[in-house]
Automatic annotation (TrEMBL):
Subcellular location: Cell outer membrane; Membrane
Purpose: Part of the outer membrane protein assembly complex, which is involved in assembly and insertion of beta-barrel proteins into the outer membrane.
Record's protein name: Outer membrane protein assembly factor BamA
Domain POTRA: 34-101, 102-179, 355-428
Pfam families: Omp85, POTRA
InterPro entries with a match to the protein in the record: Bac_surfAg_D15, BamA/TamA_POTRA, D15-like, OM_assembly_BamA, POTRA
Highest taxon of the lineage: Bacteria
Subunit details: Part of the Bam complex.
Organism: Tistrella bauzanensis
Length: 762
């Protein structure tokens, strides 16, 4: 205990003892029978005497009962208004002497560098113009120390100081010695035979302190994180068939010097189980369980996996609900046979309790309108209550990225068959001002400035203004999207842009494009989306070099394009940002000729398939086919297909396709097909670094051109490359490096080995 607190505690003890002695001393046997004629209050400054008398258990005319005097003393102390209280009986007068606690004038923090004053102010309960008490100060000191513990500083010392002011006021200053971070030196496991310590360290979130862990705080001790680690271990073992697994203890021991922790998990792995049998049973009339078997993820002889059981329950609930059973309840019955080390799983599908949504309560949205939240719900007030649809609605709200926290809970309604759905959200900033810098071997140095508001006026509208400047491209664009146009589930918006692309290196000209677009897209099914778009743009081919191909020179000038497009997208990926499983199909058609100078029809089909080979290793296969045909006119060079660079690694941008053999200019083609096979995997570095490697093979070609001439080189042979690469999502922005070697190519192709890109926003 700090000396100052020891002194304060002793002082308080002495004062209390003295006060009690003062109160009890006058209560002699003869005084107990005396009667109190009046009550005199001394020492009060802010508090009225009558207020103090109201706290007493005695009144004028009452006998001077020692027990009542003692109760009065305790009551006055209990108010927290006084630093000292003394009661005594003198003649027929009860004299109450008080020393009032001071009032806090100001609260300040000194010595804190790692935590801001605002962070600490939120933790303390005392406020300026409130009464100072030692008890409240002690409580606030404990809260502040807890804050520093949560931030990994167990050696932090907090010493409260008071500065006396006039009129019985004080300034309260918390003097803080933050001390060093209390790191986790070592994580050990006891009782693990099936998995090594190293493998289990990769499972838990807490990490051992290393010199290179300057980007993470997971190497500090946090009791809450340690509890979460227990849950992560449990999930890991249950996923791998150890149904009897338990974490017997998780202990963090502080080293004698108080600067580091040693964490030890004691586990009981138990036996590993296989699946004995899997059944789907139901009492619902007309439901054929044989049609549900494809949704069951486990089969006999598979290793037991609790996560697949949960996934199957969700899939069955969704499917049966969609088949017209809104109150369905799916429960897995797990029967464990320890003798044969097998588990039988029976999914029981029954009619659940009939309940309806009485109302949906939304709290915490100060800026976002209620309707923006309600329109993401897959059920409405009065609908049958469905837990799966509530979960889907919660996920949709989180995907908006408008909130730091989204919690959806349920409570009983006014009747037994009614349920109240409560939505608690904590809003986050949705405005962005970004400045980006980077470098790409394809575009050279680049920078951009963007201003974006993703939740304009709390209506969920998206407005963006961007400026991009790179070695080969300058872009200015404005876009606006209304996610629920005319209160329908239709995202509509417009784009206005001005783009200038320097194609001097590959084709000896500069392309300038100015235009705008109107677009709308909507969901046909939960996975199928249809988009419509109209684009009006003016393309200019200019700054054509003196040695440019004659086919490029023929394209010089301006051309107006009026294009109607539609896109069908069928997306079954688990994530749009970092897919690990599932597939994507997309088909796009463009028709130019409803006005303007360009007339063509362009079709493009794309597909991607992702398969998790293990938890961290993901295989993918992607491909695209495109064809454009002129409608009475040749296809303009701006609308042809080009291949190379990011779309065909191992070849330079526009490095593949028809080419002028004299000028060595890329001319683009009307037919494109390309694909890629890739395997992504971790590089063995801590997960915090988010570094992944890949091996890949790209293949494809571009061919066919409306122009003809002996100098045109055009073959439809397939080109291919193999390579390796890595991606690091660094604190400074994503860094991507690929090295590829062309293994199938033509002599006139333009190849490249390395491709690098780096970018950041701040």
């Amino acid at each position: 205990m700090p000396r100052s607190w020891l002194a304060m505690t002793l002082t308080a003890t002495l004062l209390a003892s003295t006060a009690i002695a003062h109160a009890q001393a006058p209560v002699a046997p003869q005084a107990a029978s005396a009667r109190i004629d009046r009550i005199e209050v001394n020492g009060n400054q802010r508090i009225e005497a009558e207020t103090i008398r109201s706290y007493l258990a005695l009144r004028a005319g009452d006998p001077a009962d020692p027990a009542l005097i003692d109760d009065s003393l305790k009551t006055l102390y209990g108010t927290g208004l006084f630093a000292d209280v003394a009661l005594r009986v003198q003649g027929g007068t009860l004299i109450v002497d008080v020393v009032e606690n001071p009032v806090i004038n100001r609260i300040d923090f000194e010595g804190n560098r790692r935590l801001e004053d605002s962070d600490l102010e939120r933790e303390v309960l005392l406020r300026p113009r409130t009464v100072y008490t030692r008890t409240r100060v002690s409580q606030d000191v404990e809260r502040l120390q807890e804050v520093y513990r949560r931030n990994g500083r167990y050696g932090a010392r907090i010493d409260p100081k008071i500065i006396q002011l006039d009129q019985n006021r004080v300034d309260l200053v918390f003097e803080i010695e933050e001390g060093p971070r209390t790191e986790v030196r070592k994580i050990s496991f006891v009782g693990n035979d099936r998995f090594s310590d190293g493998a289990l360290r990769d499972v838990v979130l807490t990490t051992e302190a290393r010199w290179y862990n300057f980007f993470t705080s997971n190497d500090t001790y946090d009791p809450d994180r340690l509890n979460y680690d227990r849950e992560l271990l449990r999930r890991f073992y249950l996923k791998n068939g150890y149904a009897d697994f338990t974490v017997q203890s998780a202990v963090a021991e502080l080293a004698p010097d108080g600067e580091e922790f040693f964490v030890t998990f004691v586990v009981d792995e138990g036996e590993r189980y296989k699946i004995g049998s899997v059944d789907v049973e139901t009492t619902l009339p007309g439901l054929d369980t044989s049609t549900l078997q494809d949704l069951v993820q486990l089969e006999a002889e598979d290793w037991y996996d609790a996560s697949k059981v949960e996934t199957t329950v969700e899939a069955l609930t969704t499917e049966v609900t969609d088949r017209g059973f809104p109150f369905v309840r799916v429960e897995p019955a797990v029967t464990r046979d320890r003798a044969t080390q097998t588990i039988n799983v029976a999914y029981q599908i029954d009619e659940g309790p009939r309940s309806f949504v009485e109302r949906i309560e939304i709290n915490g949205n100060a800026r976002t309108l209620d309707e923006v939240i309600r329109r993401e719900f897959r059920l409405a007030e009065g609908d049958p209550f469905n837990a799966e649809r509530v979960r889907v609605s919660r996920d949709r709200l989180r995907n908006l990225d408008y909130f730091d926290k989204v919690e959806v809970t349920t409570e009983p309604g006014s009747d037994p068959d009614k349920t109240v759905v409560k939505v608690d959200v904590a809003e986050k900033s949705t405005g962005e001002i970004s400045f980006g810098v980077g470098y790409s071997t394809g575009s050279g140095p680049l920078g951009d400035i963007g201003i974006r508001e993703r939740n304009l006026l709390g209506r969920g509208q998206d407005l963006r203004v961007g400026f991009t400047l790179s070695g080969e491209e300058q872009l200015v664009d404005l876009s606006f999207t209304e996610p629920y146009f005319l209160n329908r589930d239709v995202a509509a918006g417009f784009d206005i842009f001005r783009r200038e692309i320097d194609r001097e290196d590959e084709s000896n000209y500069v392309q300038k494009t100015t235009g705008g677009a109107l677009r709308a897209d909507y969901w046909l099914t939960p996975s199928l989306r249809h988009g419509l778009k109209y684009t009006l743009r003016n393309d200019e081919v200019t700054d054509v070099g003196e040695n440019a191909s004659r086919f490029i020179r023929e394209q010089e000038g301006e051309r107006l394009s009026s294009i109607v497009s539609q896109t069908f997208t069928y997306d079954k990926r688990d994530s749009r940002i970092d897919p690990r499983s599932g597939y994507l199909l997309r088909f796009t058609q463009d028709l130019a000729g409803l006005g303007g100078d360009a007339r063509y029809a362009r079709h493009r089909a794309e597909a991607g398939w992702y398969y998790p080979i293990t938890d961290d290793v993901v295989g993918s296969l992607s491909g695209q086919v495109g064809y454009i045909v002129g409608l009475g006119d040749d296809v303009p060079i701006n609308d042809r297909f080009f291949l190379g660079g990011d779309s065909l690694r191992g070849f330079a941008t526009a490095g593949v396709g028809p080419r002028d053999s004299v000028a060595d200019d890329a001319l683009g083609g009307n037919l494109l097909y390309a694909g890629s096979v890739e395997l992504g995997f971790p590089l063995g570095l801590p997960d915090d670094y988010d570094v992944r490697g890949r091996v890949f093979s790209d293949f494809g070609t571009v061919t066919e051109i409306d122009d003809s001439g002996s100098e045109i080189q055009d073959v439809n042979s397939i080109r291919a490359s193999v390579g390796v690469g890595l991606t690091w999502i660094s604190p400074f922005g994503p860094i991507r490096l690929d090295a590829a070697q062309a293994v199938l190519k033509e002599d006139f192709d333009d190849t490249e080995v390395f491709r690098f890109s780096f970018g950041t926003r701040f």
